[in-house]
TrEMBL record:
Residues 311-384, 396-562 form the Rhamnogalacturonan lyase domain. Transmembrane segments: none annotated. This is Rhamnogalacturonate lyase. Its EC number is 4.2.2.23. GO terms for biological process: cell wall organization; pectin catabolic process. Its main location: secreted. SUPFAM superfamilies: Galactose mutarotase-like (SSF74650), Galactose-binding domain-like (SSF49785), Starch-binding domain-like (SSF49452).
Length: 564
């Protein structure tokens, strides 16, 4: 009796909790990898097309069974090979322009990945999507249900939905790359699973900033500054720096867990090719993975395009001069790679380990460019480079918002990241059409202006007799849609109509995006335009295009400043 009881107990353990044997099984159509982790992880890769067709973790099938997990919508066909060497198993999937790697390290509950490209996939974006079992993994982190479209009705394009009274979209799971440490799909530990024993979590993790082969090598950067000058300006212009893309999306039948390497969504620069990664899928029962998972062993695995730490260099220095109430970021980019880092509060910074080369080096307050420079990185050394700059305008008569390259603080700005402008949880776009300098707060100034919704916006400003000289009204924007740009009137003066901004050919504000090319428009006001007493300024959206409501031409505000 005693003996058989032990057997039963150990069998139960074997089902879930006992170390499995690390190893590779080669079948006719599949490779099966046992990661040898203490919470058993076994995954299956189709030898014809590189799809993951099964992910068995801690006794549960986490892979959606009708469609695999893969790059894009699947490679279609690929040459798939597998090797085991000591504690590592590497599966290599090769097409004419793309090589995708799956790597397992004995004992790690992790599917390590990297993707090497020589051309952009024909679908126009490069992403890994794990299609996971929505019954077991319905929940998304860190933004909850914002991208859960299960049971919803499409209200815009085929990607913004109404679920009950809430607007939802896969795009609302976006997070700036610099801030995206990890995102996750998981079971509901409190609802129908009574204990954490039944929790399962699947995380997508970018490598840590300390990792020499950071994904940040490849992530898309933005184009150089674009400046629309209505009359005259010499300022450095805000420039896009960090963009983001879809992270998670429960569509009902499966839950999508994404790693975007690039896409045409509000695309502001050319795609980079080369090695993207390593990135990884981490499995846990309740724990949260470290943000500093070591992937340096990729250097020993024959991964095309991998550059080890020894082949890299650093930039360190001190940034100074910008508004210290905002975060400071230093950004390096060239056609092959890009990197970011926040500075310390004192402005000191050290870059991630960078590939050798010459980089444009940019200093931002928030996301607004205050200085641009250049630096050359050599392998095995640290280049010292300080950078200094600040926003330069003049004597401020009024300023609405901050020069931070973001609509932060304006009406509906926080909501816009996670819902559609039509969402009933948004504040009314039209209830406060007049902003009065001195008494209105920035939170009543709309973060965006739509030709068919809330154009024009009126600003009332009381000037003194000493403020009636020539002045500049500067309108900073972060993203435009359908050619939307500002035209201004000040009392009886009408500013000229600026030419259309570069068309990114992508919906923006309605998909939770705010970051584009960051056009800044200056309106030079001749002396006498501003009068002592009350002044009325209007900002309208102009465009040769039209559209309904929130798809009418529009742009997003960064800051509005009148200065002399
Ligand atoms: C860079 O800035 C630091 C901190 O202000 C300063 O100590 C150092 O001398 C500067 N280096 C150069 C080359 O200007």
């Amino acid at each position: 009796m005693f003996f058989s009881g032990l057997v039963v107990a150990s069998l139960a353990l074997w089902g879930k909790g006992v170390d499995a044997a690390f190893g590779l099984t080669t079948n006719t159509d599949t490779y099966v990898v046992d990661a040898g982790s203490s919470n058993p992880l076994k995954f299956t890769v189709d030898r014809t097309n590189c799809d993951i067709t099964s992910i068995n973790y801690y006794g549960s099938e986490l892979q959606y069974q009708s469609t695999g997990s893969h790059i894009g919508s699947g490679l279609g066909s690929a040459t798939v090979t597998a090797t085991q060497s000591g504690d590592y198993i590497k599966i290599t999937c090769t097409t004419s322009t793309l090589t995708h790697y799956y790597v397992a390290h004995s004992g790690d509950p992790i599917i390590y990945m990297a993707t090497y490209t020589t051309a952009e996939p024909s679908v126009g974006e490069l992403r890994y999507i794990a299609r996971l079992n929505a019954d077991l993994l319905p929940n998304e982190e860190p933004f909850g249900t914002v991208s859960n479209i299960d049971g919803g009705t499409a209200i815009e394009g085929s990607d913004v939905y109404l679920v009950g009274s809430e607007t939802r979209s896969k795009f609302y799971s976006s997070e700036r790359f610099i801030d995206d440490q990890r995102h996750c799909e998981h079971t509901h530990p409190l609802k129908f699973f009574a204990t954490t024993d039944n929790d399962r979590r699947v995380w997508i993790c970018p490598p840590s900033l300390h990792d020499p082969q950071s994904i940040r090598d490849i992530r898309r950067r933005t184009l150089p500054p674009v400046h629309h000058s209505l009359l005259v300006s010499t300022e450095i212009i805000a420039k896009a720096n960090i963009t983001s893309d879809i992270n998670t999306n429960n569509v009902g039948s499966y839950t999508g867990l994404y790693w975007y390497m690039n896409s045409g969504h509000v695309q502001t620069e050319s795609y980079r090719q080369g090695l993207h990664g390593p990135y990884l899928m981490y499995f846990s029962r309740s724990g949260t993975p470290s943000t500093d998972i070591d992937t340096s062993f990729f250097a020993d695995l024959g991964i095309t395009g991998y550059v080890a730490t020894s082949g890299r260099g650093y930039v360190s220095g001190t940034a100074s001069g910008a508004d210290s109430s905002l975060d400071w970021v230093v950004h390096w980019y060239n056609d092959a790679a890009q990197y970011w880092t926040y500075t310390s509060s004192s402005g000191s910074f050290t870059s991630p380990a960078m590939k050798p080369g010459t980089y444009t080096m940019v200093y931002y307050q928030g996301e607004y460019v205050v200085a641009t420079s250049s630096v050359t990185v050599t392998a095995g050394s640290t280049t010292t480079k300080n950078i200094s700059g600040s926003v330069k305008t003049g004597t401020t008569l009024f300023k609405i918002g901050e020069w931070d390259g973001q609509p932060t603080g304006f009406l509906n700005a926080a909501s816009q990241l996670r819902m559609h402008p039509s969402d009933s949880r948004m504040s009314s776009w039209t209830s406060t059409s007049t902003y009065t300098v001195g008494s209105s707060s920035a939170s009543s100034f709309p973060m965006a202006i739509f030709k068919s919704v809330n154009s024009p916006i009126t600003i009332k400003f009381t000037a003194t007799s000493s403020q009636t000289g020539a002045a500049t009204l500067r309108i900073g924007t972060t993203l435009s849609f359908a050619g939307g740009r500002p035209q201004v009137t000040v009392n009886s003066y009408t500013g000229s109509a600026p030419s259309a901004p570069t068309n990114l050919d992508s919906r923006g504000v309605t998909r939770g995006a705010y970051r584009g090319l960051g056009e800044v428009y200056d309106v030079s006001l001749p002396s006498g335009t501003i009068v002592a007493g009350t002044n009325t300024i209007t900002i309208s959206v102009i465009s040769g295009s039209s559209g309904d409501e929130y798809l009418s031409p529009n742009f997003i505000f960064d800051c509005v400043e009148l200065f002399q």
